[in-house]
């Protein structure tokens, strides 16, 4: 069965989504709006909602006037939002992004363990390293740490966090009122981590999470990112534009996971997929054209600059080619993806920003439920994907259309569930529950 | 009107609460349990629930066997729990403790702003500096920073957090779909904070909170703590044992607040009050005796050690006097309070730990609804308190008894509300909503 994530930034993925007549530009801070979206995704039997995050407002615009054209400025912090959504949903997984660069592992281990208890085992953590100077400048730095340092910290961060989740064995707490013994002292394990980036004693002041560990999600596609994913990720979110590329990536990740002593089936690869679906192809084309017409050139260029790792291209003519780019300390894999697309398709800067205005470098599918189901099926059966992280164009209509039109078509083909298999996110994704101490001994993860 | 907080650590304040036959020792990680408690407090028209917190498990016990006698080991992280409770309640305030010592101000500003939106203006932040080496050791340190350094950081932390909450004016967001302008660029204010402990550019990626700023709560009672409270706190939680002491503290805080250019009415002083209430005095005494009988000496001594700032007294006989104590880098005001009590009442170590087994140095009231209401009224009309942070003995029974017996008696006397005055925590506490930029200019806070 296909696995589906619902990637739901308010008010949608298209950069001009907020200007659509039906969009709610203030939705990012409205709980009722989010509750309605997530219940729609749960009605559609999605495995999980997925919230991206950044610890700052992107500030690559020249001034506040330019920035004010941008439509995604303020929104809930994902862990607080998902905690509230946890108690208004019953089956759907709840995956929040949190940065290893600007948090301490003890705080992150606690919060995700707490969310896993609030949701009775439906939490996921999208592990990221932060990739902008704008974020660094909110955390006592002038510029972000370099790529290698960020990943080095992230790897040690995972050792600490999983170690803290293993502070207590699953059945450590006895609550024996008679004898006065609250827990079995043999089942407490104090971490005593001493490393290069962190010294963390433990134990965690939360019990072992219902899922053992929350599901680990990861999206880095650079060599460092792929190695990290192969070692740690159970869901890999990736940007792939052709089936050949997707297959190469898919096989690479599974192979590297096996080299880390893991069962390749325990890593689910979900390429991001930007979708515009209509009852007819013409309806879908009209929807998309309406959104493209709303793209402000300032916003388009700002988006492209971000995609290129905050490389300044403002001096180049919009209707000329993309210049050669310097290396970035931002996301190297994303920069390369966009650059290759520009060269491959011979796009001007303007054509390039319009082409990423929806999916930001992710695969873009436009059409009818049948045509889009064909395209998803091709990648799924062709071993390019275990499923997809679905990116609606604008909300709530885009998600409604996917749930009401596309999901039934996938179900009809037997590609997607009609009922949830279980109650935890692991149950639904078909991932094993890690045994106590599993993170320290990857070989134990084998099926 | 009196202001009342419900201070609700699962499974209650008494150190042996978890061993009570009716107590739920696993309640700290059970959302339904907390939802039920907080709805009871809301039915009782409490101003707020108050959750204390520490970033670690206290490790002053000699070994895991001793530690296993202790009953408060694992619980929800407060911000995730209150986010979930926010969407299952309508009027009660939600105050979480978060440390300025082991967090970054950008993260804290975001999370509390997010909680304020989730709860439509019912969030409060209990600002603490962390006071144990056990926490320090979870954050890359061997020992905690000294008292003065912690407060120096905390003061700058507040400048940054309030500055970030003022990133956007209240009406900054226009969402003008036609013109494509999302916000008014004149209403964005980038902080550019450069200080001794922090460099934070801003802006925050959350709009200005519904309450302007979440309500600031503070509990430090050392000279540094009182000065901090006078400058920043809108609710002061304090431990006072006699009316004379309480009056001195109350007048001191109000006077210092005035010296900071604030209206003294905008600082509400709420002494912590441990309550055992029964229909008759004998019933209350029986309840208390039953709890005291359940106190394990190892736990009693561990509790006392913590109250004394982690000073080791294990070499001294339980039935002898408390020895002279060295200075602590923990909570100096709490150490002094306990020490003075021991001397004043001539208590042995065992008698001392039994005396703090319930209220941990806070005022202790045992009796009938009438007698307890008399005692609360005396402090309230006697200018020792603006209200009380109520500490039930064990849960849920202790809170039920307070809501069903004591609250009606206070309402009958016209001392406490029968309906909420408004929808935000500020409305109910009678606190003004801070204007944009208020924190930078305390004089603007005058009524």
From TrEMBL, chains A, B:
Coiled-coil ranges per UniProt: none
Pfam family, one: Bac_luciferase
Residues binding FMN: 53, 97, 147, 151, 221-222
CDD domains recorded: Nitrilotriacetate_monoxgenase
Swiss-Prot/TrEMBL keywords: Flavoprotein, FMN, Monooxygenase, Oxidoreductase
UniProt similarity note: Belongs to the NtaA/SnaA/DszA monooxygenase family.
The protein's name in its UniProt record: LLM class flavin-dependent oxidoreductase
Single annotated GO MF: monooxygenase activity
Residue ranges of every copy of the Luciferase-like domain listed in the record: 15-385
């Amino acid at each position: 069965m296909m696995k589906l994530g619902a990637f739901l930034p308010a008010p949608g993925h298209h950069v001009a989504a907020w200007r659509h007549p039906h969009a709610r530009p203030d939705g990012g801070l409205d709980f009722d709006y989010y509750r309605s979206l997530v219940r729609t995704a749960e009605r559609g039997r999605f495995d999980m909602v997925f919230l991206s995050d950044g610890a700052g407002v992107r500030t690559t615009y020249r001034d506040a006037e330019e920035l004010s054209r941008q439509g995604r400025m303020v929104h809930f912090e994902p862990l607080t939002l998902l905690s509230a959504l946890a108690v208004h949903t019953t089956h759907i997984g709840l995956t929040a992004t949190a940065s290893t660069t600007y948090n301490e592992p003890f705080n992150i281990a606690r919060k995700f363990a707490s969310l896993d208890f609030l949701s009775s085992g439906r939490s996921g953590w999208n592990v990221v390293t932060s990739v902008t100077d704008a974020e660094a400048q909110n955390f006592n730095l002038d510029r972000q740490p370099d790529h290698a340092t960020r990943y080095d910290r992230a790897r040690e961060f995972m050792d600490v966090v999983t170690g803290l989740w293993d502070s207590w064995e699953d059945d450590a707490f006895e609550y024996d009122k008679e004898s006065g013994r609250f827990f079995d002292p043999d089942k407490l394990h104090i971490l005593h981590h001493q490393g290069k980036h962190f010294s963390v004693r433990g134990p965690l002041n939360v019990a072992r999470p219902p899922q053992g560990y929350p599901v680990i999600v990861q999206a880095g596609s650079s060599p460092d990112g792929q190695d990290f994913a192969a070692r740690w990720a159970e869901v890999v979110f990736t940007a792939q534009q052709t089936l050949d590329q997707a297959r190469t990536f898919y096989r690479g990740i599974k192979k590297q996971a096996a080299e880390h002593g893991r069962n390749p089936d325990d890593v689910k690869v979900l390429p991001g997929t930007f979708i515009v679906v209509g009852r007819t192809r013409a309806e879908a084309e009209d929807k998309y054209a309406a959104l493209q017409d709303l793209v402000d050139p300032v916003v388009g260029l700002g988006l492209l600059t971000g995609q290129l790792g905050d490389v300044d291209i403002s001096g180049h003519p919009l209707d000329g080619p993309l210049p050669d780019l310097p290396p970035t300390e931002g996301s190297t894999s994303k920069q390369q993806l966009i650059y290759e697309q520009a060269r491959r398709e011979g796009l001007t800067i303007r054509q390039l920003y319009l082409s990423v205005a929806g999916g930001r470098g992710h695969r873009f599918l436009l059409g009818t439920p049948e045509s889009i189901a064909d395209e998803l099926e091709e990648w799924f059966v062709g071993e390019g994907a275990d499923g997809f992280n679905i990116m609606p164009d604008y909300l709530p209509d885009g998600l409604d259309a996917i749930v009401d039109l596309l999901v039934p078509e996938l179900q009809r083909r037997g590609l997607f569930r009609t009922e949830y298999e279980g109650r935890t996110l692991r149950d639904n994704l078909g991932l094993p529950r890690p045994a106590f101490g599993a993170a320290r001994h990857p070989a134990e993860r084998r099926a």
